[in-house]
Amino acid sequence: MNLIIDVGNTNVKLAVYSLENILKHKRVIKHNALVSNVYEIKNAYPMLDKAIISSVGNITTEALNTLKEIIDLLVLTHNVKLPFVNKYKTPKTLGVDRIALVSASVKQFSKEHVLIIDAGTCITYDFINNKNEYQGGAISPGLRTRYKSLNNLTANLP
């Protein structure tokens, strides 16, 4: 039984999974509530063994250290061994959130062409080929940012 933690730009998402089944998932709006939510999940699922965290949002070193005391934690970075070959021209600039998505797609759709679209604070598009090689992608404003931009920068659009 493991825990996945995704610290995004706007929300923190947590999921408990076992044998490829999600047992619980939770979205936390306040980043500073991450540690208390992990404690709560750990108490509810005492068999939790390991966790992985992907963070593009704000998380303090203190919070990371506390999480490491609660559970065996792997912090996803560019130095972690990945299940795909990163052909991105500047691999160190690829966000760990996108690395996590590509890794998951390779696990689920190995040796297939896959376009991964993630619609969060930003919308990302990432492509992996049937050789499990990351070819690249794009990032654009998310729906809320698009709406605000149109509202603020146009005369007659909502």
Automatic annotation (TrEMBL):
Associated pathway: Cofactor biosynthesis; coenzyme A biosynthesis; CoA from (R)-pantothenate: step 1/5
First and last residue of the signal peptide: none
Positions in coiled-coil regions: none
Catalytic activity: (R)-pantothenate + ATP = (R)-4'-phosphopantothenate + ADP + H(+)
Cofactor section: K(+); NH4(+)
CDD domains: ASKHA_NBD_PanK-III
MF term (GO), any: ATP binding
Family annotation (InterPro entries): ATPase_NBD, Type_III_PanK
Subcellular location: Cytoplasm
Keyword S-adenosyl-L-methionine: no
Domain of life (superkingdom): Bacteria
Keywords: ATP-binding, Coenzyme A biosynthesis, Cytoplasm, Kinase, Nucleotide-binding, Potassium, Transferase
Binding partners and assembly: Homodimer.
Family the UniProt entry places it in: Belongs to the type III pantothenate kinase family.
Name of protein: Type III pantothenate kinase
